[in-house]
Design goal:
alpha/beta, Rossmann fold, 20 helices, 63% helix, elongated, binds adenosine-5'-triphosphate, binds magnesium ion
Length: 601
């Protein structure tokens, strides 16, 4: 129930519209309720005319009057209904608009670890499918529900006014209907919530299959994938069938019970008309009212179902909204001090917990106490075996993750004391697998600074050794890249990502193995250009090739989450077998044996 009440709170900005559409709905019901009464009176007039075998004078006038009133009532009801639908649409779409913005803004506040542990499809389905269910109910369903209730009340009151005893017989099944409706809502909600969950799993499966289509095709796994997908579809089908069976049992029953009353009314009421204790007109009106009760009873069932679905979806939406961001925020964030981008890691430990929507689990420790100083204004290389924690260490600088213990300082200030936006604009991180948006090349490069001039964009592209290939493209900088940049080669993507980072004018430029897909010559040209132009005072790079490592003045070796050597090339060469092996492999290839600081020195 609580998620239901919470859903209602989203109607607050639309109080006026909701009140308006409720008013219109009740007015439409009021007008509608008059129609059987007027019909009854018209029939009485006809009957009296029939008794005289002619319709004239008083009877004719009465018939014309009632027919006219009925026509007017029908027209009025039509107008009221149009108005209600317009207002209802405004509410429904408004709630959808608000909720979508709210959810999206909330998603953006969550930390990276949340996304690590969440499936994209799960999140997307909450933003779309669940939102639809909620907005439809809040916009239309709720008013329909009220309208149906008003119909039932008004019609029941009219029945009682015409003949209380007959009304008693006709309304006898109603308490049963109410009990049944309550029972129905109780068992339907969990079933419907499970349907939504399985739809989300299906979405997640489809999302994976589509984004991983290259692997699927390359390994000819279509058949396997189809059977996995079929299992998901089957899961949705089975659960939806379960929910449908519940609905099928209860919904028609809710409509069927009041219909039983009709037979009783025909038998007993007919008798009373014949004995002249009830006019034919009143009996007809009674019969109409009773029939009028049936549709709203059925609608009540349908909209209670919609309400259950909305509550189920609402619960899923609130689960997301209630997932608090777990990244600490400095209460009084400090501005970035002046500096060249000196970085200090002090006893840094990191374990990335799994923190999705379904609780959290602590993760394995990746970094086990890292102490490292990276002098400002220098080029620094971080090397180490695959899986040693290099990317994880770099991710701490821009606070993509926060360390579980220890601290990271930028120019002497702990990064978690800094204003997060200021920190992130001072640090440009080029990830190991660069991500491009499906936009033009220029838009991708200018992502951090959309106001950058074409000349600045070109300059960044030149530094990143990307200008040549971009200019060869048919639309140059205006070429649209496919989703995730899949229409470009790996090395082209990497260079665009580097250009994007350069254009951000950071204090610290982090290249996480960001030149791995380039040929050795292009990599050398790129690093040389960076060393000359110095787009950032401090460059921190992870590299696998000695030629790239050589560009750094200082090196650190990370092994199994610990720094095992750090310092000048000579110091590290003396201390680290890993470093010696790296350069030895190159010596074997007949290159310069002596590791030396490169042009940046
Ligand atoms: N988001 C994460 N959540 C949990 N564990 C992670 C996460 N990212 C990485 N790991 C684990 O941390 C360890 C270090 O990973 P990391 O990516 O930092 O290595 P790396 O040194 O960058 O390796 P490579 O040279 O292959 O890029 C790995 O064992 C990996 O499984
Ligand atoms: Mg890595």
């Amino acid at each position: 129930m609580s998620s239901f009440l919470r859903l209602l709170s989203f109607l607050r900005p639309y109080r006026k519209e909701v009140a308006g559409s409720t008013l219109l709905a009740v007015a439409a019901v009021g007008v509608g309720v008059a129609i059987p009464y007027l019909s009854g009176e018209a029939i009485n007039a006809i009957r009296q005319g029939a008794a005289h075998r002619a319709l004239h004078g008083h009877d004719l006038h009465r018939l014309q009057l009632y027919a006219g009133l009925i026509a007017a009532a029908v027209c009025l009801r039509w107008l009221l209904t149009v108005g209600r639908r317009l207002l209802g649409g405004r509410v429904s779409l408004g709630v959808e608009y608000d909720l979508r913005q709210l959810l999206f803004a909330h998603l953006q506040r969550l930390e990276l670890a949340f996304f690590d542990a969440s499936e994209t499809g799960q999140l997307l389905s909450r933003l779309t499918v669940d939102l639809q269910a909620v907005r439809f109910f809040l916009g239309y369903g709720l008013v329909f529900l009220l309208q149906s209730a008003a119909w039932i009340l008004f019609a029941a009151a009219a029945l009682l006014a015409i003949d209380p005893a007959l009304a008693g017989a006709a309304l006898a099944p109603v308490p049963l209907v109410v009990l049944l409706a309550r029972h129905y809502t109780r068992i339907a909600r969990p079933a419907l919530q499970e349907v939504q969950q399985r739809v989300a799993e299906l979405t997640a499966e489809a999302e994976q299959a589509i984004s991983g289509i290259r692997v699927v095709l390359a390994f000819a796994r279509e058949q396997y994938l189809r059977s996995r997908f079929a299992a998901r579809v089957e899961g949705v089908f089975q659960q939806a069938m379960k929910a449908t069976r519940i609905e099928a049992r209860y919904n028609p029953t809710l409509a069927f019970l009041p219909q039983l009353g009709i037979t009783a009314v025909l038998l007993w009421g007919g008798e009373q008309v014949v004995q002249a204790r009830l006019s034919l007109g009143a009996f007809t009106a009674f019969y109409f009212y009773l029939n009028m009760l049936i549709a709203p009873m059925r609608m009540l069932g349908v909209f209670l179902g919609l309400g259950q679905r909305a509550a189920a979806s609402g619960a899923r939406i609130f689960q997301l909204l209630d997932r608090e961001p777990r990244q600490r925020k400095a209460p009084q964030p400090k501005p970035l001090p002046a500096g060249e981008g000196e970085l200090c890691f002090k006893a840094v430990r990191l374990a990335v917990p799994r923190e999705g929507l379904e609780g959290s689990e602590p993760g394995e420790e990746i970094l086990h106490g890292v102490d490292l100083r990276i002098p400002g204004g220098s080029t620094f290389a971080l090397i180490g075996p695959s899986g040693s924690g290099k990317s994880s260490l770099l991710a701490l600088v821009a606070r993509l993750y926060d360390p579980t213990a220890g601290r990271v300082l930028l120019d002497g200030v702990p990064v978690d004391a800094l204003d997060l936006t200021a920190l992130r604009s001072a640090v440009a991180y080029v990830a190991q697998e660069p991500f491009l948006f499906s936009a033009t090349i220029a838009e991708n490069i200018a992502y951090a600074r959309p106001d950058a001039s074409p000349a600045e964009i070109r300059r960044a592209a030149e530094l990143a050794q990307a200008a040549t290939f971009i200019e060869r493209l048919p639309d140059g900088y205006q070429t649209r890249v496919g989703e995730r940049g899949l229409t470009l080669s790996g090395g082209q993507r990497q260079r665009l990502a580097i250009a994007r980072a350069i254009l951000a004018q950071p204090r610290v430029l982090i290249l996480d193995d960001a030149t791995s897909a380039l040929d050795a010559t292009t990599e050398r040209q790129l690093l040389a250009a960076l060393a000359d132009a110095r787009p950032a005072p401090t460059v921190l790079l992870v590299a696998q090739r000695p030629s790239a490592v050589r560009f750094a003045q200082r090196v650190a070796v990370l092994e199994e989450g610990r720094v095992v050597a750090a310092g000048s090339h000579r110091q590290v060469a003396a201390a680290s077998p890993f470093y010696r092996a790296l350069f030895a492999s190159q010596r074997g290839a007949g290159r310069a044996a002596q590791p030396v600081a490169g042009r940046a020195a």
